[in-house]
Amino acid sequence: MKQSQMLIPTLKENPADAEIKSHQLLVRAGYIRQIASGVYSFLPLGRRVLRKVEDIVREEMDKAGAHELMMSALQPAELWKESGRWNTYGSELMRLHDRHEREFALGATHEEVITSLVRDSIKSYKRLPLMVYQIQNKFRDEKRPRFGLLRGREFLMKDAYSFNESFESLDESYDQMFRAYSNVFSRCGLDFRAVIADSGQMGGKDTHEFMVLSEVGEDVIAYSDTSDYAANIEMAPVVMTYESSDETEKELEKTATPDQRTMQEVADYLGHGLAEGLKSIMFKVDEQFVMVVTRGDHEVNDIKLKNFYDADIVELASEEDTRQLLGTGFGSLGPVNVPEDVEVVADYAVEKLANVTCGANEEGYHYVNVNPGRDFKVKAYTDLRFIEEGDPSPDGQGNIKFARGIEVGHVFKLGTFYAENMNATYLDDQGKSQTMVMGSYGIGVSRTLAAIVEQYHDERGITWPSHIAPYQVHVLSLNPKKEEQKELADELYEQLQSTGIEVLYDDRKERAGVKFADSDLFGIPLRITVGKRAGEGIVEVKERQSGKQDELEQTAVIDFVR
Ligand code: ATP
Ligand code: MG
Ligand code: MG
Ligand code: MG
């Protein structure tokens, strides 16, 4: 492609609202443009890289035995009412009416649509298991769209669904998908971890998230420094405790607002705070701090939680509800049931919290605006036990470290939740009606693209892994007004093109400095500069990632590139 004819609007300055590198660089390098908050257009360069990621995903899905289809983004409310999620999904679901006042949603996810489709077309065990996928824009009215492509309101997702006869068969589909996901993210060149995630209320116990390790990630993971063990600490740290000492108390007084409230006020505050996306509330009981942490996106995908807060908040004081509250903050998928086998730990917290909410007037008080990690050493209650950085890993290998991660993928054993609500059944080999068992598997394709930029950039721009880059070669003619430069560059461009190499040709009438700066910004792996020595048939080649450069005879270029 000739750059003079392409829409690549580069910028010298970072856009004012862009806080992180991937957002800054993708906008500055002319890959994407914001249309509204959390809504982006992909310009030609952006479209190309997005397609590269899509193609990797597509290949791995096909290999795993899933078949591509495309469902409608416009979804009738009836389906969501059947599953029960019309009332429980919350305000993240974009809802609209047609001219006849019929209700619709824009697809945030497609469990309902696919379940109705399969329910109506598959009747026999002979047609199971079935795996399908699509790559399509999803719509979620995120409370805080931010970080460019990382958290959009319209974004590209690959969503896959498996329909199985049994939980054993689901395990197999799940493992296939798990392997496909590992392949996808490895092929994207990402440093990632598959972490144990929170299964909430949605059925089977197994779910993993694929996390790209990055400082800008919104999740925190606990992982072993030697083995593969890793867990999202949102999975179970429903309670964090903090050692109380004089120092921490003094610190607290400096950084937080000590506050005494009545039970009703605490309850109101909790309700209010949760609605507003409250981060944490800390209670102090018997010299021990107990913290309930909630997350801003708690209502996402969440059934029980929404019902819970629609109910009377004062019921918080009951143990049942307290247990629920302890589970609610974590995981976008629903409350965690405090399991039987952690009675000691969980009961402790439940009891203390119940205590505080019952007796906040006199003995308990809480702090607001406390920032764990900053104000305290965090002891997260993870994987059903307390874990602290440096502790032995639960799998007995190595020690625990904490890191931030970007959730790029999520595999999930749904079990029979949707099939039951929506009556998706099949006849088994005895002719008996059985409920289908389902799994769902998502990859944030546009988010993955941004995560790649987070891991592949330097101070001058993006440094794409070569199979993700929009083009493999960037040909620059430094001064196209000079006939011998223009001729040689034209010729090289033609040759590379006809050899099937993806090549971008900067034929613009711009200063050399502008061309170099843009080229560094784009991050195309190999640059071929046609400049002063064009007359002798000599060009300069430079690798974007390593900075290695060399001079080459024109005749050697094609071989070198291949
Ligand atoms: P998050 O916790 O970041 O809100 P999620 O758990 O709500 O994500 P899923 O329902 O698991 O997301 O969707 C599957 C995948 O879609 C996620 O793993 C993520 O990569 C991607 N994704 C989800 N929300 C967004 C978004 N707002 N913008 C871009 N990608 C997203
Ligand atoms: Mg979400
Ligand atoms: Mg999540
Ligand atoms: Mg998820």
Automatic annotation (TrEMBL):
Top enzyme class: ligase
Catalytic activity line of the entry: tRNA(Pro) + L-proline + ATP = L-prolyl-tRNA(Pro) + AMP + diphosphate
Assigned keywords, A-Z: Aminoacyl-tRNA synthetase, ATP-binding, Cytoplasm, Ligase, Nucleotide-binding, Protein biosynthesis
Subcellular location: Cytoplasm
UniProt-listed InterPro entries: aa-tRNA-synt_IIb (IPR002314), aa-tRNA-synth_II (IPR006195), aa-tRNA-synth_II/BPL/LPL (IPR045864), Anticodon-bd (IPR004154), Anticodon-bd_dom_sf (IPR036621), Pro-tRNA-ligase_IIa (IPR002316), Pro-tRNA-synth_IIa_bac-type (IPR004500), Pro-tRNA-Synthase_IIa_type1 (IPR023717)
GO biological process assignments: prolyl-tRNA aminoacylation
GO cellular component, as recorded: cytosol
Pfam families linked: HGTP_anticodon (PF03129), tRNA-synt_2b (PF00587), tRNA_edit (PF04073)
Keyword Aminoacyl-tRNA synthetase in record: yes
Protein EC: 6.1.1.15
PANTHER family: MITOCHONDRIAL RIBOSOME PROTEIN L39/PROLYL-TRNA LIGASE FAMILY MEMBER (PTHR42753), PROLINE--TRNA LIGASE (PTHR42753:SF2)
Quaternary assembly: Homodimer.
Name the record gives this protein: Proline--tRNA ligase
Gene (name only): proS1
